[in-house]
Write a structure and sequence with these properties.
Blueprint lengths: L7 H15 L25 E6 L21 E6 L1 E10 L7 H25 L8 E2 L9 H13 L7 E5 L1 H11 L5 H10 L4 E2 L2 E5 L5 E3 L5 E5 L10 H4 L5 E8 L5 E2 L4 E10 L6 E10 L3 E2 L5 E6 L11 E3 L10 E3 L6 E3 L1 E5 L3 E6 L11 E5 L2 E10 L4 E14 L5 E4 L4
Parallel strand pairs: 4-24, 5-7
Antiparallel strand pairs: 1-2, 3-23, 5-19, 6-7, 8-18, 9-10, 10-15, 11-14, 12-13, 12-16, 12-17, 13-15, 19-24, 20-23, 21-22, 22-23
């Protein structure tokens, strides 16, 4: 059978299918918000946004007397602001090859790189997750280590289904070694012969070579809350769209000490609560720093999430022993300036990814825009007549958002 000349559309179709198949963590997050964008004939441009409503909470009344509650809805903004691409070229001779051969030689390696970039960007959202269990720097080596993440999700009432975990190679293989000792033929055989873990405690478990590494700030000393923080300091209505709060700390080791976006800490006397019953949980609430900060003398102002809501339907902290957090001890998770792998365990709805078609540029010829299972790619050719070479630029456009921080947890092992 004679070879056929490959068209832009054929190459784009092959590329987008390989790209979708190679996605790791990006394939396990929520993908439904593409439908929220206005349908356009010519595609989308960088910078377009949609609004996502935060779920509402209510308190349960006691008795027969009605007590109406105001419905206060917050919203998030998701922006499609990441345009990534791969560029490659073929001679006319190469374009007469069968698509299977071209896919293996050129398209698949290119799409693997592009998929890894999307996965890396999704994994970097771990810096916005305040929940962190285990001891940073320790490898996950046992089921008990892994189960700490499951326990934390359960404590926060996270739905049982649609949970996934992505572990660094060291943590994945550390956990794998324990599975080969099980007296269960399926899991033990899969771990030993296939190098697969499957579901553990109801969580799909994967190894990811591009798990993010977080470098903590140089924060040292004995930091304390600097300034009054009481039940009246912040209302949900004031922070419903950002769920962030500015707080002061002092007692750092001196000027130029840093606190990094992604640093996690607890405050003495501030406990987590069950999101449904609002009853206190037996562990301190964890907060995450959302922007880098540098100390002046020994003090700094931090932007943190979530904001502390002391009362009402959106209550998320239970403060014990004090009525004002001024001078309460602040304890950071992990050693100062440490490098920590960010293993993630999460429910699908914790993060959102939208990937939408790029515009077909005016003046461009033979543009191919293909979508497959929620993945969209645009391929544009341009020709070098001197060298008889066809070059192609393949672009994707996407946006990412941490939708609900409560639905994810960072996981480290135990000493």
């Amino acid at each position: 059978m004679a070879n056929r000349t490959l068209t832009t559309s054929i190459i784009a179709k092959a590329a987008v299918r390989i790209l979708e198949n190679e996605l790791g963590i990006a394939g396990k997050v929520y993908r439904g918000y593409e439908d929220e964008f206005e349908k356009k004939v010519n595609g989308y441009t960088v910078g377009e946004t949609i609004s996502i409503r935060r779920p509402t909470d209510f308190t349960v009344r006691d008795g027969a007397v009605a007590s109406n509650q105001d419905v206060v809805e917050g919203k998030l903004t998701l922006t499609v602001n990441k345009q990534k691409g791969i560029d490659f070229g073929f001679t006319s001779k190469e374009l007469t090859l069968e698509i299977d051969e071209l896919s293996e030689r050129v398209i698949r390696p290119a799409m693997i790189q592009l998929a890894n970039q999307v996965d890396k960007d999704v994994h970097l959202l771990s810096k916005e997750v305040p929940n962190w269990v285990g001891t940073p720097g320790e490898t996950v080596k046992t089921f008990a280590d892994f189960a700490k993440a499951t326990e934390r999700l359960d404590e926060y009432g996270v739905p049982q289904g649609d949970r996934s975990s992505f572990l660094s190679p060291a943590d994945f293989w550390g956990l794998m070694g324990t599975q080969t000792n099980l007296y269960m033929n399926g899991p033990a055989t899969g771990a030993y012969r296939e190098g697969t873990l499957g579901k553990i405690a109801g969580i799909e478990t994967f190894m990811a070579q591009n798990v993010a590494t977080f470098t903590a700030g140089t924060r040292a000393g004995s930091p304390l809350i600097n300034g009054s923080i009481t039940s009246a300091t912040i209302t949900y209505d004031a922070v419903k769209d950002t769920m962030t709060q500015a707080i002061g700390i002092d007692g750092l080791g001196g000027a130029t000490q840093t606190v990094k976006a992604g640093d996690v800490f607890t405050i003495a006397g501030v406990y987590a609560v069950n999101p449904v019953t609002k009853e206190p949980l037996p562990f301190l609430k964890q907060f995450v720093v959302m922007a880098d900060a540098t100390a002046a003398t020994n003090a700094a102002t931090l932007t943190i999430a979530p904001a502390m809501i002391w009362t009402g339907a959106q209550k998320n902290v239970n403060v014990q022993g004090v009525t004002d957090l001024d001078n309460q001890a602040v304890t950071f998770v992990g050693a100062a300036a440490g490098n920590f792998r960010q293993n993630l365990v999460f429910h699908r709805n914790a993060f959102a990814l939208v990937m939408i078609p790029l515009v077909s540029p005016p003046g461009a010829v033979d543009v191919a825009r293909e979508s497959y299972k929620g993945v969209s790619a645009r391929l544009i050719p341009y020709y070098d007549g001197v060298n008889d070479k066809s070059s192609y630029r393949l672009d994707i456009l996407y946006g990412l958002k941490t939708v609900d921080q409560r639905l994810a947890v960072r996981l480290s092992g135990s000493a």
